[in-house]
Amino acid sequence: MVMGKAKLSKPLIFQSKLLCISLLYLITTLFVALYTSIYPTKCLFRSSPFDPIQTPFFSYPSSYGEHKYVIPTHRSSCSSPIYFSDYWMVLKEILRLCQNSSVSSHALRYMKGNRKNFGGNFSTQKRISYFDLLNDSVEVPCGFFKRFPVSDSDRMAMESCHGVVVVSAIFNDHDKIRQPKSLGSKTLDNVCFFMFVDDITLKGLDHHEVISRNSHEYSVGVWRIIKVSSKDLYDNPAMNGVIPKYLVHRLFPNSKFSIWVDAKLQLMVDPLILIHALVVSEKVDMAISKHPFFTHTMEEALATARWKKWKDVDGLRNQMETYCENGLQPWTPKKPYPSGTKNKLHTLNILSYFFSLLRHDQFCKCHYEKYHINAS
């Protein structure tokens, strides 16, 4: 009987390379799925301290805004449409521009007065006469013929904001406060976030225990909440929301750049990167987003009336008739710009204006705000 060494063979399961690769893929997939379900706000392949902040800025009660949905985005919070590796270069350049800027909010002279209407009730032709104004010594009409009704402490906070300001507003409790995502580690030190609300919205925040009415100053996550006394402005909440939307540079006279974010949207990219990519690098004064659903201004007007977003339908009709009288034409794909308008000025209207970035220089402050007061 011959005695020999016994051979140890690999288990059958490890003899197939394809099977091993399949098992490895399955285990990895299960791990990633489990990780993302337990930590939905964290990015698995981002561990560098220089990457965007992924932790949530505020935890909302489950009952708050459960029926108020944000316009959906197909972009992951772990990715950015602009390379975040440029963040530190962008931060340094924005800070340099803000520190070295010679632009002063006092370069233009604005009309003052004490009238019943916030905007002064100027006719369309009267406002148009100021569009090509070259003499800076002439006072221009641009709202604030009534004092904007906010507290003195809030006004001081607004005037102390230098550099970049991000602004939004919720009136008549129409939307919910949404926290920005993908902010850089130094952004909150250099960017101000202000949310304007009326008393109805404030009551809703108190009802859902998002804020406490016992305090005179409110904040929700990154946003400082500014209460506006709507009884001292317009009866229509939508009209009151137009004021901070179009006059950001007047409400924040010491800021050099501003971003307006409609409350139905959520800021998904660091504001410094947006300012740099869309305004500074392009050497322009303003950037405006394309409407997410409608191509032509008339489409948005019809949707506004259909869903009763603007109660004064006759006023909406008069507004559109005014646009048509001033050159609004049907939009076609042959037009060189993605808007149903005859010229660029008409793209700056209340119906299609959702997301904008504004550089606070003299030309932009003069022409931009005069048109918007006219449009609103």
UniProtKB/TrEMBL annotation:
**Lineage top rank: taxon:** Eukaryota
Q: Identify the residues that the record assigns to the TOD1/MUCI70 glycosyltransferase-like domain, covering every copy.
A: 113-339
UniProt KW keywords? Membrane, Transmembrane, Transmembrane helix
- A Pfam family (short name) is TOD1_MUCI70
Residue stretches spanning the membrane: 12-35
Q: Which PANTHER family match?
A: ALKALINE CERAMIDASE TOD1, ALKALINE CERAMIDASE-RELATED
Instruction: Tell me what this protein is called.
Output: TOD1/MUCI70 glycosyltransferase-like domain-containing protein
Q: Which organism is it from?
A: Populus alba x Populus x berolinensis
